[in-house]
Structures are given as structure tokens and as C-alpha cells.
Amino acid sequence: MSKGNIQLTLPDGSVREFPAGATPLEVARSVGERLAAAGVAGQLDGEIVDLRAPIGRSGKFRVLTPRDSEAGVVIRHSAEHVLADAVERVFPGTIIDAGRQDHSEKFQYDFRVDHAFTPEDLERIEQEMARIVKEGKPFERQVVSRKEAAEIFRKRKEEIKLIRLEDIPEGEDITLFRHGDFVDLCRGPHVQRTDQIGAFKLLETSGAYFKGDERNEMLQRIYGTAFATKEELDSYFAKIEEARRRDHRRLGKELDLFSFSPLAPASPFFHPRGTIVYNELVALMRELYQEFGYEEVITPQLFDVDLWKRSGHYDHYRENMFFSDVEGREFSMKPMNCPGHCLIYSTHAHSYRELPVRFADFGRLHRYERSGVVQGLTRVRTFSIDDAHIFCTPAQIGQEVSSLFELMFRVYGIFGFQQPAIYLSTRPEKAIGEEALWRNAEAQLERCLKERGVEYTLNPGEGAFYGPKIDFVVLDAIGREWQLGTIQLDFNLPDRFDLTYVGDDGTEQRPVIIHRAVLGSVERFFGVMLEHFAGDLPLWLTPEQARVLPVSDRFMDAGRAVRDRLVQAGLRAELDERSEKLGAKIRDGELAKIPVLLVVGAREAESGGASVRVRHRGDLGTKDLDEVIATMTTTVHKRVLNPWPEVQ
After folding, report:
1. How many Å apart are CA 386 and CA 485, to the nearest integer?
2. Where are the alpha helices (DSSP H) in 109-168?
3. CB atoms within 10 A of CB 246
4. 19: which strand partners?
5. Is 644 exposed, middle or buried (0-12, 13-18, 19+ CB in 10 A)?
6. Domains in the chain and their CATH numbers?
7. What would the pLDDT profile of 560-602 be if each residue is shown by its tens digit?
8. CA-CA distance, 231 to 541, in Å (whole number)?
9. Residues 497-518: pLDDT tens digits?
10. What is the value of pTM for the model shown?
């Protein structure tokens, strides 16, 4: 390679040499003019870069076109600038603030404007955006000095931009992007021309504090989304509608599972039916604890802050903790179980022969989540985790992590979550412990992953403050990602709590702590699972597994006998005793998402059986009651997803 040049590996495997500072657009032109014309961004070693920004190093490179899924973030970012341009045109004198950092689904801009935006305003803005897109004006990237940028925004009377300019650290490049008469501070990347923004839609408007600080002025925010084609946009809205249909908050209310009260903010109340589901999730994990060698413990809710200072939570986590003064001493509700488990471990001397020790704990935790981020069951202030801490020797780490993989995959398979994505997260900026300990812990986890032969993604800087971790991310029924389980390696807490065991050489040694959760927060998993199944819970989980429907009052006793047989067999069954027509009873049972409806009329009363209707399968005809019970109990025992398996 010539001095001062870079080498780029293209998608076909060929390696080409370019002058250092060549732009992605110049590279695209060297491949072909059609590619250059269609390009919306470059991608260097997986990082999306602007077509006009110089490439400073060698690496794997490709040009993104609207047909690439990764191009969506660039299209939405560009539509964001078009939005701001349109607002300035429709409402002259508007002062713009800043857009959004995450363009994975949406774009947004905040504005200082003399009124709250209305739906009619959004229509006018959309129409203006369409005109700007049709103009096909090029996006131009410009690197300027701080003085030049300040002069530009002073002339434009962009007061907020001058404040944002001051936030850019000294020595960092200041870049502007222009299209037509519009200009803004921005790092990019952006498409080449406005007409590469294929389809867009403004979604909603809301108030937003400047810089997210409630002490600052309130601005007006507009949200939107954009895609390369109208088909992609339509698909997005179909997915949004499906997500709305599956929203666990709506389902929780409709199915009478849980509720919330302003008297206990972000703290769910589980109703009797919801408590059945909750307890079934816990029972599943307790059953597996027996198989995988866990011992369950119970620990206090309230601890002196000295414990949290010793563990490191006070210095690194206290903004998420609830504190209270008790008789002149400062206490905190526990946000995590690990320090309490360390105290239990320390009550006895341990030998290497006893390890690993596996403590499991369903204790209630409390964390202060800001009101702006709490959401249904997926972000609450009080919850329980299927939590466990494994105290083991360094030599046992591999076998314990391997066992945890078996447990994780077993549980996720029960719920139909297949092939979770796995992430290895390393030392964050805010961490406790020596760097050498971290390097050792990270190497141990990476070795476990490689020995297991699973694909994983490195997630630099995203570990817990006390150790690196492996996270498991599943896809639900409509393709959304949810982070559930975690395996965290900790060499720090054993030091802080002076935990020891006697090794095979007779000397005192430090154990390693493996923090692990499979479901994660039971509350959060409840919400995720409810949306995954769209409320149609598997037979073993659903609070009402069967409902008996007498055709008329004449067959109420026969229906009651069927219900009683089901209950005696350990099934959760109820009898619809209302004097309603059968059609209404069936409809109500379906709306309540009851998996099995058992109709009892003259023929069934005489035979002692029931006509079986299975959710999403329809009428299966009259069945012998012993067969019904055998099928249902087997399905429950095996935790089968289908409420009435095709093959018995």
C-alpha cells in the first residue's frame, strides 16, 4: 500500500486502494455511476458514514442504497431536516432546537413557536415537506470554525443554535448540513438529495423541555417517520397497529389481570387472575431450581446505607434508590439482592468441596425510575426478579455458565422464543474494581461463549458497574427485540465483603460471584409475554383454563358436574351460570381469551361428556370428559403452547 493511502475491502471481496481522505461518494463513483447516484450513505466496518465525509482509515466498506435496511436511519435523519425546513417555511419566525439521536424508527424536532401545533398544522407541514422532497435539493456537508458557525446562526436569529454550539467541545469538528436555504448544526449522515426520502408521515406533537430539563422552557416537539418506499411505510404502520392490539396495558385491563393507581406510582396491582399468571411464572422457575441445584433464600427489604456503601451501590447507583430515615439512621429499600446474599454466604466458613453455592431469591426490589420513563409493566418501581447468585471457584466458571445456557434456552423455548441474540458487554466508564480484574472477567466470559460455539455481539462499555455480562435478547411474535436474561461475572463484591472459601491446598481464597436472571424482572417478563401471545396465553399459564357453558338453565347441574370434575383434576375451570343465549356465552368466552370452552346440552348431559371448542381451532365436537381432562392435564404438565395439541 502506498504511503498515505487506505485499503477498502468491498462487498465482492476485492480490495482497492484510495488516497486517505477519499469520500464514500468518490469510492462509489469508482465502482459505477449508477451506484454513486443511488447511494445514500457509506458503511465502514459496520459504522454508517456520510457520503461526503472523508474516509480516514482502511476497513470493510460498502455503499448503502435505499434498498438496504440500514439506509432507513439515514433517510429518517434527512427527513428530520426537511421537517425543520418545512416548519420554518409554514411558520416564519419559528426558532428550531435539535433533532433526535436515535433514528431507528422515528425522527423529531423541537421548536420554539408561539402556539401548540394542531393536527391541521401537521397536515400543512406535511404538504410543505412533500414540496421540499420533490425539489430534490442536494444535502451539502460543510466543516466550519466555531466563529463561522456562530456568525451564520446569528444572522438567522437562531438563538437556540448558539446555545447548542457552545455545547460542542473545543477541538471537535463543527459540521453544518444545508439543503436549499435551510442549514443546521449536524454530524450527519444524510442522503444525497431530498428526493431520496421516499415516503414519510408526521405522527404526533407534544411539549418537551429544552435539553430535557424541567427547569428550562417548554418547546413544541413534532415526531415523524420515513422510509425508502410507501410499502415500507405502510408495513411500519401495520406493525404499529399490531403492537397497539397487543399492548399489555390494554390487555391487562381487558382481561382483568392488573391495574395501576396514582397512589402508588409505577407500582402494579396484580388482580386475582393476574396473580395466577404471576405465580405460574414463579412456579416454573422454582421447579427448574430443583433440577439445576438452587437453594431459595429470603432477605430483608430495608438495609442500613452502610451495606450499600460497602457494595458500591451508594456511589454508583444511589440516584435509583429509595432512602428513609429510621431512628436517626439512613436506610434504603433494596434495589438488588446481591449484597444480602453476600451477607448470608459470610455467615459460614466454606470449603471448595461445597462450591458452587447457588442462592435464588424472589424478593421484592425497589428502584426509583423517573416518571418520564416508567411504562406499564415493562418499567416499574417495584418488582421481583427470578434472581440468583452463584458463589463458585474460578475453575467452575465455565461449567456454571454452560449450565446457565441450558437453563436459559430451556425457559425461552417454553414460551416460543427461539434462538436469542447474545451480547457480551464490557467494562463501563463508571465501574468499580481494578482493570486487571475486569480484563480477566471479560476473558472468562468470552472463553465460555467461544467454547459454547454460539454467535455473539460485543457491546463495549455496557457492562454492569461491578462486572462484565452476557445478555440474551429474544424476538417476540412480531419481531420486536426484548432483553431478558443476563449472566454477570463479579470479582469485586467478594473482595468488598471479604468472602472466602478454603481451597484444596488449605489456603483461604476468593470465590467468584455469578449474578444471573432468566426471565429478568417477573413484571417486565409478564408484559413482554402478554404482548408476545397477544393475550392468548398457553393453557398452563392462563388464569381460566376452561369455561363450561350450559346450553340453558335446564343443563346447569350437568354443567356444574363437568366443572367440578375439571377442578378436581387440578384444572382452573369456571361455570357460566348466566341466563344468556349460548351464542352470547361463546362470544364472551372468546373475548376473555379462554382456551377451552365446553358446551353442555342434552346429548352431553346424557353421555357425561362435553362439546369442545378450542380457541383458534373452533368446534372439535363432543368428547368424553375423561379424554378432555387427560388432554388438558397433559398439556398443562408439559407446558405445551397449543391448548389442544393436534397429536395426542
Report:
1. 10
2. 119-135, 146-155, 159-167
3. 19
4. 5
5. buried
6. 5-65 (3.10.20.30), 73-236 (3.30.980.10), 258-532 (3.30.930.10), 546-638 (3.40.50.800)
7. 999 999 999 999 999 999 999 999 999 999 999 999 999 999 9
8. 38
9. 999 999 999 999 999 999 999 9
10. 0.82
